[in-house]
Each structure stands twice: as structure tokens, then as C-alpha cells.
Design a protein that fits this description.
single chain; Udp-n-acetylmuramoylalanyl-d-glutamate--2,6- Diaminopimelate Ligase, Chain: A, domain 1; six-stranded mixed beta sheet; five-stranded mixed beta sheet; 24% strand
């Protein structure tokens, strides 16, 4: 099966026109006409993931985060990115990234987190006039619980050994707002409050922003950038397995643990 045929299926799920203007989604490395037998699905295209792809003899890496965001002037062995790109090309491995378009699309990262937390009554968080989707979701818990109980629940569902939360531990939580990755600015916090969410789940929460949220009586869960998004890999595998079931394509989820935070 040609690379571009798999790309077509990815773009039925998450069309490129959903991507935000600053993003760099699409086929970033490789030949769209290349034959593909093995696909590796990963959150990031790190050195470890590239090595994994080489060992698996993968022809295509489908990632959430682009291998590059900005134009680059040189591709050589003097930079980590340059060496990574050279290794991909030498081993004839294509890289396709589905980033903010996958965040916004139905069935993408935000739906993966929504479903993992077993929320109900899904509603959009940020809607765009020119995009058929939403950045983030809101939903309700099947049974209300305190913030500390919800933090423990989120930690368990995400498979984390540690989780940060902000707010009154005993505050009763019913409505949840979420946006995967690093959607932790004040605009998102204000919107969560306007939508009557008691808690907002995201990653990469900073100190002063957490103070701002607490002043509004909005609780926060920092699910980490990695853990809130890596869960989409299983969704992508299942989606592609269904769409490509008549083809003999091997779909593999990366075993590389890309979580950068460690706890002692």
C-alpha cells in the first residue's frame, strides 16, 4: 500500500484544514509514493522512536507532534534534528504528523481523554467558524466526587505514578473541562469557568496561571503533556486497522516511554 493511501485515511479522520495556522501537520519526511508495510504510531519523533522504527523495519511513522515546527536552513549531522532526519531518509522511513487537526477532530486526542475519563454529555470547548471541530471538550462525571477523589481517579486512568492538582481538595466536582497537551493559558481557564466547569484538565500548568485559576475558584488537574496525549495512539491504531483491514499492513504502537518527568 502506498504511503499516500494511508495519509488519505488519516486525513479523513483529521483533515489538514483543521490545523491551526502556526502548525506544521502533514507529510514532513519522505516519499508519498513509497510502499508501506509497517507503520509505527508514536506521540513524538524522538531519537528513540526513530531507532525503534529502524529496528522494526517500519516504512512510516505516524506521530502527533511534528518532527519540526519551523522552517530549517540546514540538514546535517551537527544538530540532533539534522541527524534524526538523515537517519530517517537513509532508512527510507516517512514521517506523517497529525497535530492540532487531530486535537480538534472528532475521534482525536481530546475525545481520547474524554472517553478515558468516562465522561458523559460531551460538548465542545472552543469552536471555530471555519473548522468542523472543537479544541477541547466539556463533560460530566457519572457520579460527582471531590477534587482529591477525581485527581486519584485521573491518575489511575492515565497510568501516572504522580499527579498535580490545584484547588480545594474537598470541592465537589461534577462538570469537567479538558484540553490535551499544553492548553493551560488564562483564556482557557476563563472559558472553563464560563462553561461552569468545577475542574479543568490539561498539561504544562505554570505557577502564576494556577494562581489565576484559583482566584476564579477553578480547580485544575495537570495530567502532563505526554500522558494526556499519548493515549490517542491506541485510537489511531484501531481506526487504521478498521480502514485498512483489506490490506496486509502491520500497525504498531511505539513502546518508547516519552514521559520526561520522573518522580522519586
Amino acid at each position: 500500500m502506498r504511503c499516500k493511501e494511508i495519509i488519505n485515511q488519516m486525513e479523513l479522520l483529521a483533515p489538514l484544514n483543521l490545523a491551526l495556522e502556526w502548525d506544521n501537520a502533514g507529510l514532513l519526511v519522505g516519499d508519498s509514493n513509497m510502499e508501506v508495510n509497517t507503520v509505527l504510531i508514536a506521540l513524538d519523533v524522538t531519537d528513540e522512536v526513530v531507532e525503534e522504527a529502524v529496528n522494526l523495519k517500519a516504512d512510516l511513522i505516524i506521530s502527533h507532534h511534528p518532527i519540526m515546527y519551523k522552517p530549517i536552513n540546514k540538514i546535517n549531522n551537527e544538530t540532533p534534528l539534522g541527524r534524526r532526519i538523515i537517519k530517517l531518509i537513509e532508512n527510507k522511513i516517512c514521517v506523517y504528523s497529525s497535530h492540532t487537526n487531530l486535537d480538534i477532530a472528532e475521534g482525536g486526542t481530546n475525545d481520547a481523554l474524554f472517553n478515558l475519563l468516562e465522561l458523559e454529555n460531551k460538548e465542545p470547548f472552543i469552536e471555530y467558524d471555519n473548522k468542523n471541530g472543537s479544541l477541547g471538550r466539556t463533560g460530566t462525571l457519572k457520579n460527582s466526587m471531590t477534587l482529591s477523589e477525581f485527581a486519584k481517579y485521573a491518575k489511575l486512568r492515565l497510568g501516572l505514578d504522580n499527579i498535580r492538582f490545584f484547588g480545594d481538595s474537598e470541592k465537589l466536582i461534577t462538570k469537567v473541562g479538558l484540553s490535551t497537551g499544553a492548553a493551560s493559558d488564562r483564556k482557557m481557564f476563563k472559558l472553563a469557568k464560563e462553561k461552569n466547569c468545577e475542574v479543568y484538565v490539561t498539561g504544562d500548568i505554570r505557577y502564576h496561571e494556577s494562581q489565576f485559576a484559583l482566584e476564579m475558584d477553578l480547580c485544575l488537574i495537570d495530567a502532563t503533556h505526554y500522558a494526556s496525549e499519548v493515549i490517542v495512539a491506541e485510537n489511531l491504531k484501531n481506526y487504521l486497522a478498521h480502514r485498512l483491514e483489506s490490506h496486509n499492513i502491520s500497525l504498531i504502537i511505539s513502546k518508547v516511554n516519552g514521559q520526561t518527568f520522573k518522580n522519586i
